[in-house]
Amino acid sequence: MSKYTEDDLREELKTKEYEYGFYTDIESETFPVGLNEDIVRAISKKKEEPEWMTEWRLEAFKVWKEMVEPEWANVHYKKPDFQAISYYSAPNSKPKYDSIDEVDPELLATFEKLGISLDEQKKLAGVAMDVVVDSVSVATTFKKTLSEKGIIFMSISEAIREHPELVKKYIGTVVPQKDNFYAALNSAVFSDGSFCYIPKGVRCPMELSTYFRINQAGTGQFERTLVIADEGSYVSYLEGCTAPSRDENQLHAAVVELIALDDAEIKYSTVQNWYPGNAEGKGGVYNFVTKRGLCETNAKISWTQVETGSAVTWKYPSCVLKGDNSVGEFYSIAVTNNYQQADTGTKMIHLGKNTKSTIISKGISAGKSQNSYRGLVQINSRADNARNFSQCDSLLMGNECGAHTFPYIEAKNKTAIIEHEATTSKIGEDQIFYCNQRGIDTEKAIALIVNGFSKEVLNKLPMEFAVEAQKLLEISLEGSVG
Amino acid sequence: MELKEKLLSSFLAFENQVDVDTYVHDIRSKAIKTFETKGFPNKMDEAWKYTSLNKILKEDYSVFSKEENALEYSDVKKYFIHDIDSYKIIFIDGKYSSHLSDTTHDGMDVCLMSAALTKPKYRLVIENYFNKAAKDDGLSALNTAFSKEGAYINIPKNKIAEKPIQIIHFSTGKESALMLQPRNLIVVGENSHVQIIERHQSLTSNPVLTNSVTEIFANKRAIVDYYKVQNDDQNASLIDNTYINQKQQSHVSVHTFSFGGKLTRNNLNFFQNGEHIDSTLKGVTIIGNKQHVDHNTLVHHIEPNCESHQDYKGIFGDNSVGVFNGKVVVEKEAQKTNAFQANNNILVSDKASINTKPQLEIFADDVKCSHGCTIGQLDESAMFYLRSRGIPEKEAKALLMYAFANNVLESVKIPELKKRINKLIANKLAVNIGFDL
Lengths: 482, 437
Hints:
The complex is a heterodimer. Chain A is 25% helix and 33% strand. Chain A has helices spanning 6-14, 37-46, 51-66, 105-114, 118-125, 143-148, 156-162, 164-170, 181-189, 429-437, 442-458, 463-476, and strands at 28-30, 89-91, 128-133, 136-140, 152-155, 194-198, 208-213, 224-229, 234-242, 250-252, 255-260, 265-273, 285-295, 300-307, 312-315, 318-321, 327-336, 341-344, 347-350, 356-365, 370-379, 387-396, 402-411, 417-426. In chain A, the strands form 3 sheets. Chain A has a 10-stranded mixed beta sheet with strand order 4-3-7-9-12-14-17-20-22-24, with helices on one face. The longest helix of chain A has 17 residues, at 442-458. The relative contact order of chain A is 0.10. By secondary structure, chain B is an alpha/beta fold. Helices cover 23% and strands 37% of the residues of chain B. Chain B contains 10 helices and 20 strands. Chain B has helices at residues 3-17, 22-38, 54-57, 73-76, 113-118, 123-129, 138-145, 380-388, 393-409, 415-428, and strands spanning 87-92, 95-96, 109-112, 151-155, 165-171, 178-180, 183-188, 193-202, 208-218, 223-230, 236-246, 251-258, 263-272, 278-287, 292-301, 307-316, 321-330, 338-347, 353-362, 368-376. In chain B, helix 2 (22-38) packs antiparallel against helix 7 and helix 8 (380-388) crosses helix 9. The termini of chain B are far apart. The relative contact order of chain B is 0.09. The chains are: A alpha/beta, B alpha/beta. The A-B interface holds A 72, 379, 381, 394, 396-426 and B 46, 332, 335, 345, 347-377.
């Protein structure tokens, strides 16, 4: 990866349009629009799934039909018509490639524009990629290295076929089918996603990574990710998203389940940069995601997210601290600009004794956007000596945006220690002045200050992502200087 | 019959019984319709997520007290702050007691809502202020529909009320269960200053439900200090709705001391309609034994250069439940707002629980807003320090709790009231601390 300089940024900022806004024409096999039992069955059949999986999906579909969309979030949008979406699309030529040369060149070009050239990644980054383009995984690298360690890293449809016992045991245990409206929808129609299993005592030697990409016009993306870290294992998982620019609203309803068994640790990092809509608030992705992790004894789950994209975000990565001494962490930066709306935060459910959780949330709102932190810290009556620290800071740029905090704190144990603090501020004129004085123009000064504001979270990201995330922050806030 | 139906059906009888002034009559009729549609809040309402009225609404309340009841001053003296000279507006079972009261019309009005609502000379004030600040949620509307009696205080321009005003609502328990709906209106003119102490007291263990609405209007540069003492009987419940409308440069502070009652819900709403306004909301809650106290505050910053300070402390024992829901809204125009909110809680029992939700909604960029919220225990090293100096555990605990609650007490401006609150806290903690704080 060549060094990204400030001049490059300036160049990029000149072209204000969404930089990843292109569209690749790959022949796709797309299902008719609408959703009914037949479609669910057809998806299941298409994926060559066993009977129990089909039943599981149908069960979810039945529950979903009875449910209504949640309206409590502090976001306003035109509700998607769930019968106007095609629930399956796959790139047409989908043989399993042995070498990268066989991959559709147009697809490769797409990756290149995204800056994730496969071989470059292979050589330089040491990152194994399970690349998901429109729901079907087309290339998997480093599988060999991983399999030597006994690590299973594959698409979830493959896992359903090859490791049904693991999938059957764990799928839906953290996010049940009837958990919420979008989770139920996802359970019924999920097209693909990633599956990862780290065996007992294994420390995954590399960062596992998946790039998601919405590519086919009018298709919703329903990803399902299941990560299982067996006793004493460790894995760091990266998820990054970019989506092409499009006027029609796209729906993204993913489910991520993490299971950390005794003494295991999972670090899950996300950079989310779906198309946020244009400056008038037209278009953009609806991002309604359910992410949850379960910690057994002495386990640790750490969520790190950088949310810069999507027109509407509705996302609460959570930790259920079931085992004694388990630890949950949540580090988040959410940036909204123009007409973006984000309602994001976390839930920390303390069930076990001596459980600890940390929440650091940084919200940056600019333009006419609304940015909300919504979090829950719950200490159950048996969770002796539970400890929580939460900090939510908001930065406002301009007086047309809004920053909101809705922290719910529920304590039922007298030994609990909970601290919560929140601040809201703007970038100080004196800070800008200080930078200007030293020859740093206002735009760059803002980037600098925002970076400093977000540092606590950026530091938590793996190296590769940290660079990309900083770049994203700058781009997202471009043009927001009053 | 359910309470809602009972209230709806007794509305006509109620209207016939009071003098029909068309202006107020229209407001009442509209309010009863609002109540009919909205009803009592339930757990589905976000603002009532942690507080359920179901149990309390099941009692078979009398909506009006049937007879005039009297009390001897010597019997109820202990509920007064009796060691200072003060104006008193006293109600027994919802009816005014001239015997116990001490009102005035000398340069200012400290009198009754029933007079204000009916007599023509108050007409202008009523039209300008009555029901102008209250929101039309179900409970406030219900109070408006049955608004008849309460305190009416009107301090004209440039007047300092030289002594505090005590408003006390007694219930005698002559009815097996009674619902009270006092309605207070307080108008404070430009540059004026007033101190008010409000208390609800039930004298027996018969259940009482009070749904009170207080509207306070603080005009330019007015100073209002309002103290709510909530140390009622274990079977008395209180829903207190207070709406405060502030004009520029006014200072209003409300202190709420919640030690008693079965269920206490404080809906405290501040609206800042002017610049350089200062609003203070403070509270100490010390409860145990199945008690439930819910503080629901709203500070609405509408104009620039205003401040608000919130500081709520809670100590929760036995199987009590504490709720704090503090909301600060800063509008786009309200630049240079300085809003501070703190909520600190101590759980002293395994069965007690606390739910807190300090909420910020900010639309302006040049503001300083912060909130902090903690739940914890008494500092063990501090306990050890005290114990090692020969202070028994119970006293040591009480001492630390005093210290914990103290910065709320510090801003109480009536020394006698402060002393009384200290005594109440000592009682509540069942210790004799041996000195005045």
